[in-house]
Amino acid sequence: MTGHNFSSKREAIFKKIASTKSHPSAKWVYEELKDEIPNLSLGTVYRNIALFKEQGRVITVANVNGEERIDADTSDHAHFVCECCNSVYDLISSEQSPLEKQLVQNGFEIKRKNVVFYGICKKCSTN
Amino acid sequence: MTGHNFSSKREAIFKKIASTKSHPSAKWVYEELKDEIPNLSLGTVYRNIALFKEQGRVITVANVNGEERIDADTSDHAHFVCECCNSVYDLISSEQSPLEKQLVQNGFEIKRKNVVFYGICKKCSTN
DNA sequence: ACAGAAAACAGGAATGATTACTGTTTTTAA
DNA sequence: TTAAAAACAGTAATCATTCCTGTTTTCTGT
Q1: At residue A108, what are phi and psi to the nearest 5 degrees?
Q2: Nucleotide nearest to A66 (CA to C1')
Q3: S-S: A78 plus which of A18, A82, A91, B122, CB 3.0-4.6 Å?
Q4: Domain span at residue B50?
Q5: Is A1 among the domain residues?
């Protein structure tokens, strides 16, 4: 398997993702890092995000305006996407679902769940 | 506003979407219809799906392998996406969420929610 | 029913996120 | 240190979706 080697860029990419609560896109990560890491390439960011996902260190939160938004907080929690400012908010407690038990009883294997609310956030509605 | 006029193609597209429980992609709808509707164009399918979404007659269910999957059943229900066969299943009862009340109390306006489970369906795991 | 006007459409080009490819650089492991 | 393996930069390719332009359908008032 790939991804067992150390790589300074890989570490920098993960740290950047883990350092923010903005639920960034690949492009955001690239833009943030390209100054401090000369000749970083966007492909490297994508490749490493794909690896982090395989490793379970990063999850996909939502697709906002065609861009995939990710999160290094892999704990069970839901999200709110503001359709006005495109912010993604964390929602602390995820609902405990009777659906999950039902699925497992019917022979479905759940690998992950994704709960997203869409709407207008407080900041946008009061401006 | 657009979309108030009758259009035979528009009606055919909506009926096709509403006739299936497969949670189709735009391309699937196009492939299904192109034989019975000569010179239907994929752009027309996309344009009308966008309109149906504005009108609230169709919802986005999930993005599966880069393709947006839609549903003409706009009632409140969750979905299961099989990562093996890419089938999308309906889950009858959607969970009632304490998060929703919490969001509204904090000034967030919820327009829609999206609950998706990802995993391996029974059919795939027994084959 | 008929004539503009408005809305939809076909077909193809453009966009933009993501992935693939190739030659070079880093990292590993002995 | 050194050769093999893994990562990488840079760029080209892919592919879903959107945009554009000239044509066709639909609508509305007569």
Answers
A1: -95, 140
A2: C17
A3: A91
A4: 6-71
A5: no
